[in-house]
Specification:
The structure is a single chain. By secondary structure, the chain is of the alpha+beta class. The chain has a single domain, classed as Creatinase/methionine aminopeptidase superfamily (Creatine Amidinohydrolase, Alpha-Beta Complex), CATH 3.90.230. The protein contains four helices and 15 strands. The strands form four sheets. It has a five-stranded antiparallel β-sheet with strand order 8-7-9-14-15. Strands 1, 2, 4 and 5 form a four-stranded antiparallel β-sheet that branches. Strand 4 and strand 5 form a beta hairpin. Helix 3 runs antiparallel to helix 4. The protein is globular. The termini are far apart. The protein binds magnesium ion (2 copies). One magnesium ion (MG) binds next to loops.
């Protein structure tokens, strides 16, 4: 069932989303060669819990053990923070974060370069971010879920990158994952119709090589089958007339 959120629920989700955005901003500022993903997770969890009532959505979700997903290079998503995973110059780190407030969730992800990265990798990040923006631009009343996926796919594939198929965006609200599924590929005017007050997480996972993925023996970390690198950007948005409202933006007054 696709749920429509009340204006009050949307404001709570935007407040949760502001904490998500600030957490990602903080983690990005600490991302540098020599830091472990465990240290970044601790920074994130402490910051989230410093806000009254705010909880890290991921901790315990399907028994995931940490507050962030941290996925390095050929890891696509769902990497588990660990003291053994130390970043080095030239890596990329995808950081995925969810926060709940008064029982409502927000979800966002960014991929951060660690120092200087190769030109094709920098381009992968730009393409994935552009694909997310193209998807968000379609998230308005009158369109369908397929319009979002089509826009994401077109940007990614025009740049010679590929779209992960097995993992998709999702509705979000009182549950972290709700209907509808929001694939990063598709055909215009297909899939559920977008209506005002729907809240969805749009999250392209884009690969430099082929689209196929597999899951490692830790049962969480998803990697590309061909070992080429992958990027992930995500926002939670509310569908509205004439455009989407992004709920996971940095609050006004927080320095970029
Ligand atoms: Mg996410
Ligand atoms: Mg998500």
């Amino acid at each position: 069932m696709i749920t429509i959120k009340s204006p009050r629920e949307v404001e709570i989700m935007a407040a949760a989303g502001g904490i998500v955005a600030e957490t990602l901003h903080l983690v990005a500022r600490h991302t540098r060669p020599g830091i472990s993903t465990e240290e970044l997770d601790t920074i994130a969890e402490d910051f989230i819990r410093s806000h009254p009532g705010a909880l890290p959505s991921f901790k315990g979700l399907y028994d995931f053990p940490k507050s962030l997903c941290t996925s390095i290079n050929q890891e696509v998503v769902h990497g588990i923070p660990s003291p053994k995973r130390v970043l080095k110059e030239g890596d990329i780190l995808s950081v995925d974060c969810g926060v709940s407030l008064e029982g409502l969730h927000a979800d966002s992800a960014v991929t951060v370069p660690v120092g200087e990265v190769a030109d094709d990798v920098r381009r992968l990040l730009e393409v994935t971010q552009a694909a997310l923006e193209a998807g968000i631009a379609q998230a308005h009343v009158g369109n369908h879920v397929g319009d979002i996926g089509h826009a994401v796919q077109r940007v990614a594939e025009a740049a010679g990158c590929s779209v992960v198929r097995e993992l998709v965006g999702h509705g979000i609200g009182t549950s972290f994952h709700e209907e509808p599924q929001v694939p990063n590929y598709g055909k215009p005017k297909r899939g559920p119709r977008l209506t005002r007050g729907m809240t969805i997480a749009i999250e392209p996972m884009i690969n430099l090589g082929r689209p196929e993925i597999r899951t490692l023996e830790d049962k969480w970390t998803v990697v590309t089958r061909d070992g080429e690198w992958s990027a992930h950007f995500e926002h939670t948005v509310m569908v509205d007339e004439g455009g989407a409202r992004i709920l996971t933006l940095l609050p006004a007054g927080v320095r970029e």
